[in-house]
Design brief:
Helix content is about 30%, strand content about 25%. It is of the alpha+beta class.
Amino acid sequence: MSREIGIDLGTTYSVVAAIVDNRILVAENREGNTLTPSVVYFSEDGQAVVGERVLHMIIARPDYCVWEVKRMMGEDVTAYVHPDTGQKYSPVEISSLILKELKESAELYFGETVDSAVISVPAYFDNAARQATGEAANLAGLKVLRIANEPSMALRAYMFSHKEIRGAFTPWRTLAAAPWTCPSPRCSKRRARSSPAMGTGAWAAPTSPWQSRSSFSRSSRRSTR
């Protein structure tokens, strides 16, 4: 039996969780902690080790470590060059090593095979960064169910854990479609600006698992106001 997981692929630390017995359970890594440092260490022969086991290597052997690769996602750059072998690694390849470590930690913790995941990313990630995250997950052996915005996933997790308040929030679609008016008397003459209609323009349904409703250009935002 395979299990679906949720991953918060963080800049400095990453977390993996799953829904078990109708509750959210955060998986522990090999060291027994729920937070896994997003650090990759390469040995002199090019072997990669990820996580807390090599966190001290950032100080001891910084030339053999790479971290904060999340900031490079979606960019056509080299994330790391091994000082001995000369091997070059892209941001996608480094992220795939971190995701693979999280996948293996989840399999050890839950005792089940993991083959698919929902991955949360910053809301400001554009389509290139989301595409790169999806490619990294595929390299790690994960089927991407969805690339979702971190604020949205945080709210969903909170509401899932607090079922008594589920009806207390106005639906996001209602908030997005509602007109906005400046409360200050100084701008009372300005027009109220509205979000685009549901299902059209910038709010059209995503065409791939890693596209987001908010991942449209700034020029598109200005044109919809």
